[in-house]
Amino acid sequence: MRGDDLNMFRNPNFDKLPAVYERGTFYDFEINVFPTREGKGSCRFTSTGYETSTDVNKDFAFVMADKMMPGEKMKVSFYAYPLQSGKTIQMRAAYTAGAMINLGVANQWNKIEFELDLASMTQGSDFFYVDFKSSLTFYMSEPKFVTVSELTEGQPTTFVSIEQKLTENPTNVKNSKGAIERLIAVGHTYWENVSKFVYGNSYTAYDKDLTLVNGKNQIDCSSFANLLVKGIPYENTRYAGKTTNKPSPLFFQNIDPYKWRYANTMAKYAVEKGYAFKPNADLSNLEAGDVLFFSWNSFNDKGTGDSDPSLRDSNFMKIDHVGVFLHRKNKNAWATLQFDNGITSVYYEASDVYMSQCVIAARFPFANVESLYVEDNILLGGETVKNVTNQIDVADYRLTKTLKKGRYYTFFIDGKVLTPNSYFILQVNGKTVYSDGVREVEDGEVVAFRFPYLLDDVTDTISLKIGALAGTDSNRSATVNWVSLYEGYSRNKKQHIKSVNAVYNKPFPLDSSLVPDLNSSFAINYEYWTEGNKLHFELNLPFNTLRTGNLVLGQLPLLDAPKKTRRLPVNAVGANGEAINAILQVASSGTVSIVNYNSSLQWRFPTVNGAVIKE
C-alpha cells in the first residue's frame, strides 16, 4: 500500500489562494506572506472571534482535486507555523469524524503528518474540512493530501513520468468493431431521450441527488462519458428510475465514476493506470471509442467545461471537458459522442480548432465481441461506374435491407467530386442523412461516410448527390468507381465487395382498396423479395368477396420488376369450395395481377409461393 504521489491539494505552492468552501464567516486567508519555509510559498490562516461567533458551522473546507471515497485511507502532511504553542485543530474528510491535530511549538515550522481512515464515510466527497476550535493564526507550507492505494505496475508518479507515459501509444489495446457498435448504441439511447436533459453538473447520474431543473434531469460531459465507458444505456440509469446505474460487463469495469466524476479526474485516472496517451499533432493515432480530454485555451473557445471556472487552473492538466471520438469526417470536421453546454444531440461534429485543444486521450479496453450485424454489403449495383457532368444527382441505389432509425451505417466510396467547393451528400426522400463537407480525395483513395440514421422514413433506397458551398453553380461533376454500404461501424474497405443480395422479405404493395376485404381470421401474408436474379412471392390473400375474372393486386417498384412479363401458378378456391387454377402475372411495368383461366368462374383465397426470373 502507498500514497499516490499526485497531490489532491489544489495550488500546493500557494501561487494563489487555495479553493475553499467557507461555512464559518470569521476565517481569513492570505498567501505568500512571512514567514516562508526554505523559499517555499505559504498561506496564513486566521480565525478571529471564534468563541463568540453564532455561526451554525464553524469550519471551512478545502476543495480537493479528486474525490475521497468510503473505504480509502488518506495521508496528510504539511508544515505548520503557529503563533501560539499547543493549539489543536480538527481536520476531517466530509462525512467523517476526523482527527484532532496539534500544530506544535510556536514560531517555528513543525512537520505535521497523519493518516485518516475513511471507512466511516457514507458517500464520496471532494471536501476536506478544517475547524480551528478557537481563535488562532498559523501559517501552512507544502500541503500534501494523498489517498492510499495499491501501486499499479508501471504507474507514473511524477509529471515527468506522466509526459513519458503519454508519448507511448497504447497499441496493446484494440477495441473490436462489435464493442464500438455497442458503445454507439448506448450513446444513441441518450439521443432518443435528449429532450429530457438540461446541461448541468450538480444533479447528474453520478451525483448524490437527481433534483430536476426546470422539469429536466441534468447531464454533463463527464457524467455522459462515464456512462458510455461503463456501457450504461438510458434505460439502465437512475435517470430512468433505477436505484443504481447498471453497467454492462462488456464495457470497462475498473473505473469508479463516483470517485473519478469529472473530466480532469477521469484523465488523472487514465494516466495513473496507464490507459492514457498523447494524441499526434494531426490526431492520426486516435481510434473509435477513444476518450478525449480537453483543456480550452479560453472559455470563449467552447463552453465552460464541467468544473467551476475558479478551480480550472488547478485541475489536473487544466482539463475541463471530455468527449468520445468516433472518426475524422474530413480535414475540418470530426465526429464525436458528447454532451456539452448548448448541444442538443449526442452526435457532435467538432471543428479542427475544437479538436486542437485535446491534450490527452485514453483507450479503455472493452470486451472483444462480435459485430451486431452481418458483414454484408447491403447496397445493390454499387459496382457500376458513374461519371456525371453538369448535374447534382449521381445515382439512386437500392438496398437489400431498409434503413432503420437509430442504426449506424458505413458508406464506402471510391470516387471524387471534380467541381471546386463541392462534396458528396447522401439523401433519403430528399432529406440529407450525411454531408461530407469539402474533402480533398486522392485518386484511388477509398473514404468512409459514417452516420447514424435518424429519420423516421423507412426506405430501401439511398441517393448519392453532389452538394456545394453557397454560391456554387448547380452544374457539378463527379466520378464514382464503386460504392457499398454496411450496417454498423465497419473498418476501412479497400475494394468493392458485391452484395450477396441477402434474402429479405418486403411487404408486397397490395392495392389499398383490397386490404379491408381480407379476413383476419386466416393467416394473411403478402411479401416479396429479390435474391440475385430471382423475384420471390409469398402471398396468402383470404378475400371475403368472391371475384370473377382478373384482378390487379398492386404495383412493384420498377427496380424490382422483371425485364419481361413473368407468370406463376395461383391456387384459389371457388364458390363451392372447389379448386380454381389461375396465374400470377408480373409485368415489366411492375403491375402484378391474378389472371383466371376461366373468366366466368368465381374465386377467392388465392395463394402464391414461388419465384420468377428478373432478367
Describe the overall structure.
- The protein has 615 residues and is mainly β.
- The protein is 8% helix and 38% strand.
- Strands 28, 29, 30, 31, 32, 33, 34, 35 and 36 form a nine-stranded antiparallel sheet that branches.
Brief characterization of the structure:
It contains five helices and 36 strands. The chain is mainly β. A hairpin with a 2-residue loop joins β16 and β17.
Rounded Rg: 34 Å
DSSP strand content: 35-45%
Q: How many β-strands, per DSSP? A: 36
Structural class: mainly beta
Helix content: under 10%
Euclidean distance between termini CA atoms = 75 Å
Query: How many helical elements?
Result: 5
Outline the fold blueprint:
Layout: E1 2-3, E2 20-22, E3 27-31, E4 42-47, E5 60-68, E6 73-82, E7 88-93, E8 99-102, E9 110-117, E10 125-131, E11 136-149, H1 159-166, H2 177-192, E12 197-199, E13 217-219, H3 221-230, H4 263-273, E14 276-277, E15 291-294, E16 321-330, E17 333-337, E18 347-351, H5 352-355, E19 358-362, E20 386-388, E21 393-403, E22 408-417, E23 422-428, E24 431-435, E25 446-452, E26 459-468, E27 478-487, E28 506-507, E29 525-531, E30 534-540, E31 547-548, E32 551-555, E33 566-573, E34 579-586, E35 591-596, E36 602-613
Short key terms for the protein model shown above:
615 residues, mainly beta, nine-stranded antiparallel β-sheet, six-stranded antiparallel β-sheet, 5 helices
